[in-house]
Amino acid sequence: MYLLYGGPGNANLAPHAALQEAGLAEGTDYRFVKLDLKAGDNRKPDYLKLNPHGVVPALVIEQPGSSRVICESAAILMHIADLFPQAGLAPAPGSAERAAYYQWITYLTNTVQARFMNFYHADYFIDGEAGQAAVKAKADTALKEHFAYIDGKLSAAGPYLLGEAYSAADLYLFMLTRWGRNLSRPARDFPQVGKHFERVLARAAVRRTLAIEGIS
User: Fold this and answer.
1) Which of 21, 37, 49, 75 could cysteine-pair with 7, CB 3.0–4.6 Å?
2) What does the pLDDT look like over 160-173, one tens digit per residue?
3) To the nearest 10°, the Cα dihedral for 168, 38, 178, 14?
């Protein structure tokens, strides 16, 4: 049994969709443990035992007589892709495509997602409304540049980040594109990014994930 802890639409969305892509059934093969982040469920002692940083997601893998915990969205996503190779979410190890897959996921989590932290949580980095507004504005500019870069790459090689092959990296981009709905130029307004979002959104596994998390 797998237990995925997260909040609707948060950084758990991509690994959750990967579980669905792998053919796992919620309630039977895994359980999505929905946390109310606004109420501070992620800061309660039971969750802090899983992830001392108090952020989501956390994946608990329960086995007879033991359990282990994996944190960090990208790590969980890649681990799920490796656990269920039949889902085809990752290229073969050692291949050029695998290297590109690693590069995309690392870029999305280390560069793009990091700027979303500045955009949505400027108060983590600076005090005062004026300073926070400046941090958010710079993050907005940086994120639009990142999505423009991704748009160009999709235009040249699409329809997916690895070309014709759908992968877990596309789930990560889908999650971040959704987060980009509040930018001064929404991420989906970039033509190829928008088409990519709609393409991933049309997948049955992704739609099931959104329904389970309660996202319309």
Assistant:
1) 37
2) 999 999 999 999 99
3) 10
